Amino acid sequence: METLEKFDYIKAHDPDSMERLKRLLDRKGFLADGNVYGERFTDRQFNLVFEPLLEAAYDRARILECLEQKEMTVQQLSDGLSMDNYTVFNYMKDLLRKNHVEIAAFEERHPVFRKRY
After folding, report:
1. Using one digit for the tens of pLDDT, what is the confidence trace for 68-102?
2. Buried b (16+ CB within 10 A) or exposed e, 66-96
3. Are 80 and 66 in contact (CB under 8 A)?
4. Which ranges in 40-84 belong to alpha helices (H)?
5. Angle subtended by helix axes 43-69 and 74-81, to nearest 10
6. What is the mean pLDDT of the chain?
7. Cα–Cα–Cα angle for 32, 38, 43, nearest 5°?
8. 3-state secondary structure of 116
9. What architecture is the 3-115 domain classified under in CATH?
10. Residue 46 and residue 32: Cα distance in Å, rounded?
11. Can you point out the beta strands (E) in the chain?
12. In this structure, are residues 71 and 115 in contact, taking their beta carbons and an 8 Å threshold?
């Protein structure tokens, strides 16, 4: 998936993350000109920072899309999205902290998450 498609996807499912990415992109010129210490970011350096942030925002948007359709556990999300359990768990902690998701119930000892509206 290309960057612009990812932007559209993130904007549709997680507007807060898209806003943060947009603010960073808006600062790209400032970073290229130099910060208060005179340090300048090259395009390569900027992309080394920006690309992982974009991928993480895209993965969180995928999780939110799944939770819009159905309440799920971390394991179910991990299996459905072909992502590592640990990665999904960390994203869920972040989404819980930002009040994007909530715990709807428990299956055995595992929390079942749903998207907050």
Report:
1. 999 999 999 999 999 999 999 999 999 999 999 99
2. bbeeebbbbebbbeebebeeebbeebbeebe
3. yes
4. 43-69, 74-81
5. 120
6. 93
7. 20
8. coil
9. Orthogonal Bundle (1.10)
10. 9
11. 101-107, 110-115
12. no
Quick one: average pLDDT of 3-25? 94
Residue with tokens 């806003």: 19
Q: How far apart are CA 43 and CA 97, in angstroms?
A: 32
Q: Residue 114 pairs with which residues in a beta bridge? A: 102
Residue extents of the structural domains in the chain: 3-115
Q: Rounded to two decimals, what is the model's pTM?
A: 0.90
Token duo for residue 59 = 């993965």
Distance CA 16, CA 98 (A): 10
What distance in Å separates the CA atoms of residue 49 and residue 44, rounded to the nearest whole number? 9
**34-61, pLDDT tens digit by residue?**
878 888 889 999 999 999 999 999 999 9
Cβ atoms 21, 58 nearer than 8 A: no
Tell me if 114 sits within 8 A of 101, measured CB to CB: yes
Phi, psi of 47, deg, nearest 5: -65, -35
